Amino acid sequence: MMLKREKGVSVTIYTYDKSKVLELDLATYNEQYPDSPMQVLPSYGMHDRFLFIDDTAYHFGASLKDLGKNTFFFTQEDFTLDEVLKESQKIQAEKESLALQDDNAD
Predict the structure, then answer these.
(1) Are 50 and 59 in contact (CB under 8 A)?
(2) What is the tally of structural domains in the chain?
């Protein structure tokens, strides 16, 4: 899917864990395809998988790496990328606040 997009179409991947392997893969990809850049940004507190194409959102009920192994659903949704990112940031802030409260209780 990433290789079949038109030149000039960018991709942003939001993930909880940006590993060194992913960073190396990303650098290699961007070097090979400079006209279709890809970037990885943090998305805290979200377990679900989403795909945003232009202004259309899709929600996946399982990991895409397991596509075809089991039955799972994906649905077209009515929310925006900004709404998902704001919710992700809100969840992360709540987690950090609870962690601080736990640390202060000790």
Answers:
(1) yes
(2) 1
Can you tell me the distance from the alpha carbon of 35 to that of 3, in angstroms, rounded to the nearest whole number?
11
18 occurs within a structural domain: yes
Tell me the residue ranges of DSSP E strands in 1-106.
11-15, 38-42, 49-53, 56-60, 74-77
Residue 76 confidence (pLDDT): 93
DSSP 67: B
CA distance 41 to 81: 13
Residue 60's nearest CA partner among 76, 49, 71, 47 is 49
Q: What is the pLDDT of residue 15?
A: 77
Mean pLDDT by 10 residues, the chain (106 residues): 71 77 86 85 74 84 77 88 86 83 74
Amino acid identity at 73: F
Q: For residues 96 and 82, what is the distance between their CA atoms, to the nearest angstrom? A: 21
Range(s) of the domain holding residue 57: 11-105
Q: Is residue 45 part of a domain?
A: yes
